[in-house]
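User: Please work through this fold.
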Amino acid sequence: MTKQLSNTIRELRFHHNEMTQQALAEAVGVSRQTIVAIEKGKYSPSLEVAFKIAQLFDKKLDDVFSYQ
């Protein structure tokens, strides 16, 4: 069984005044395309980017990302 990294970024953006992918990308220092890929589970962020995303939404890392 293959494990996969999943996330709640899209939901968090929605509840954070419907933040755009572009705004999130600028806030954490990556491209919008990177955010798109992370949200779709096509790309795993670096640990630093993962922490930045979690901090931005005032969440613990495992509230944003899970590995199942």
